[in-house]
TrEMBL record:
MF-aspect GO terms: 1,4-alpha-glucan branching enzyme activity; cation binding; hydrolase activity, hydrolyzing O-glycosyl compounds
EC primary class: transferase
Enzyme Commission no: 2.4.1.18
Pfam family, one: Alpha-amylase_C
Catalyses which reaction(s): Transfers a segment of a (1->4)-alpha-D-glucan chain to a primary hydroxy group in a similar glucan chain
Keyword Glycosyltransferase: yes
Superkingdom classification of source: Bacteria
Name of this chain's protein: 1,4-alpha-glucan branching enzyme GlgB
Organism from which the protein derives: Gluconacetobacter dulcium
GO biological process terms, semicolon-separated: glycogen biosynthetic process
UniProt xrefs under HAMAP family: GlgB (MF_00685)
Similarity comment: family membership: Belongs to the glycosyl hydrolase 13 family. GlgB subfamily.
Amino acid sequence: MNVASNESVYSLPPEAEDLLRGTCPDPFAILGRQPHGRLDIVRAFCPDARAVRLVVQRPRSAPIERAMRRVDERGLYVGTVPAGARYRLKIGWADGWEETEDPYSFGLLLGDLDLHLFARGDHRDLDRVMGAQPMVIDGVAGVRFAVWAPNAFRVSVIGDFNVWDGRRHPMRLRHEAGIWELFIPRIGPGERYKYEIIDAEQRLLPPKADPYALAAEQPPATASVVADTSPFAWTDEDWMQGRAGRQAHTAPLSIYEVHLASWRRPEGDPHGILRWADLERTLIPYVVDMGFTHIELMPVMEHPFDGSWGYQTLGLYAPSARFGAPHQFAAFVDACHRAGIGVILDWVPAHFPADAHGLAHFDGSCLYEHADRREGYHPDWHTLIYNFGRNEIRGFLIGSALTWLRRYHVDGLRVDAVASMLYRDYSRREGEWLANIHGGRENLEAVAFVRDLNVTVAELCPHTLMIAEESTAWPGVSWPVADGGLGFSYKWNMGWMHDTLAYMGRDPIWRRYHHSEIMFGLHYAFSERFILPLSHDEVVHGKGSLLERMPGDDWRKHAGLRAYFAFMWVHPGKKLLFMGGELAQPHEWRADGEIAWYRLDQPEGRGMQALVRDLNRLHRAIPALHRADCTPDGFEWLVGDDVDNAVFVWLRRAPDAAPVLVVCNMTPVPRPAYRVGVPAGGYWRELLNSDGGEYAGSGMGNGGGAMAEPEPAHGCTHSCVLVLPPLAVLYLTPEWAV
């Protein structure tokens, strides 16, 4: 009997019925090539096709076509090819013929080492392994999909290429890691896709976006997009080679924090958003002109809700489509580097939103989040909390961080809401949280994750910055992990920000009773490596703008803010200013608007901008203002007890550099003959007067400087008699240093 006519070829295994119902957990056991003696049986499931043919390749002859038999009206076709012969499928649809390789003719896709490292949480190239990866396999171009869903009964890839039909492309489960994989030939970058998941109870879940997607649709659409992963042609070699020096603790660091959508709107479109190329032409020159060393972008990772400002992120590997394609984001970073500007991204590993297309109950189980709301629900933001105790979750988050730092050459990450990660009782009342294994409130799993994250980044991405938004007294946030710390490069000094803003917000007549508020930060200024943040959080939710928080009439408000900025730029610690502050923005920031550019038509706005520009220029140019920012030998008190006059005087120092004398008068009362000790004789040149006429101040000052007399004061051998302008800060340095 001829084998080809053997009707057993067309008999179906019992599992075929599950396939036809769309509930088959192992499609490779039925579809594709199945050995059958001298022939291979080929089965293809093509619902709604009108015909399917096999195109059989022959070594020395033209391919031949054979019709496949439809063995079930729901779309299952069977045919045969010589054993081992290569073949393609030719599928007749209502609108024409599609010719493609069979997705079920390919072998295992992920290597055993990839699976092993993934399960341990130690895979450091997840952006090249998971998600949608365009590639060529056995000479065939297509996209390899891989997604972690260990508790799913069935996972399929759905997209435009299969009319979003979950029956068409069910995936193979690699049991050892819980990863589902499939190679789909003849599709490529730009394809939209999601995963259709049936959970362990065989319930169909809402279609899920890819957690590892490198690109996504522009919201409110929610599909993932196959990204073009071809290498970007970087031109930032000089920056990357010099980054170690630019980002050392002894280097100047002045950060401009930006919410991209509301920095500036397109001309004539109050609701539009500038794209990456637009920002390259506008934002980068502005930051360069203002003298900032770095730009910090509020989250640009994909997020569904504009109102979260990016802090409710679902696409931790994907630049938001709001601003353009991934390669356009890379071009923006490249342009920043060519212009001498570093790029820091806000990054959110603390929580994620519960949108149905996202990570919540991803495979029908609490996979990314904790099952117990006392651990897995964040009451402040009504979001879910990652289960840091799972290897795969730690690997997922670290993989995201490495993606931004390596794939996009980003210079640092500011890690959002670290305090909420470190404490199990954060924002919770008694009975709403679970203690750790020792009965304490510390989240030991989160601590282990943070340390692992920072050790990994330091090893694989040296000279990048890891910055913690951490608002408590947790010890050693910026200490090395080897010394028991968390391993961050810097910590935001939230205490300094709260105390000094409280002081500046008081009527000057009462400041004498709150002297400690402006001094307290100097008691612990060197316990960590600090960044002084005047961030977006200080100009929202009814707090008012920085200008509004200054007391008094309009003149006093502007003078007070100028003095505050000048005080901040010579206080130990690196600097961060949220956009709009440099314009003396008179109203709170609104994410649906733009910053107050009209202020540049007013002397006070232009003056504030000029002051911030000069503060940055001095900060970068004068070693004493940055080189010893993180060590106590860079700061020396001269006057800290003049409570009645609210005058503060100190020296900023650096090894082998001239000192800078800082004199702050925090009342609106001029001090016409105030004697201040200085460590050397000669002429002391005035570097900056925050009340100068060029800043729209009164212009009162010292005519450019003062001569030091050999009269001891404040523990110094010499002293200067200075005019202290009202609500002003002066910087002076020896003439020989200028």
